[in-house]
UniProtKB/TrEMBL annotation:
Top-rank lineage group of the source organism: Bacteria
Stated name of the protein: Uncharacterized protein
Bias (Basic residues): 38-50
Organism: SAR86 cluster bacterium
Positions of region (Disordered): 31-51
Length: 69
């Protein structure tokens, strides 16, 4: 009896999941300015960020392991 119940529950859950997967976001959600760029657009943005990064000049200091005051 448990097998039949959980089997039907599984089939019903998959059916609902597959039908809800077709629901899309509203036009208001899709046309935002601060929307995350997924897919191909994401790679082009990463390349732009790397090229526009700036290197800050500074001095290096040696760390002495013995003096951890």
């Amino acid at each position: 009896m448990n097998t039949i119940f959980f089997g039907l529950l599984t089939v019903l859950s998959l059916f609902i999941f597959m039908n809800l997967g077709k629901v899309k976001a509203s036009k208001k959600q899709m046309d935002r300015d601060d929307r995350i760029k997924w897919g191909r657009n994401r790679r082009s943005n990463l390349g732009k960020n790397r090229r526009s990064s700036e290197i800050i000049e500074g001095e290096a200091k040696e760390v002495d392991e013995k003096s951890k005051d």
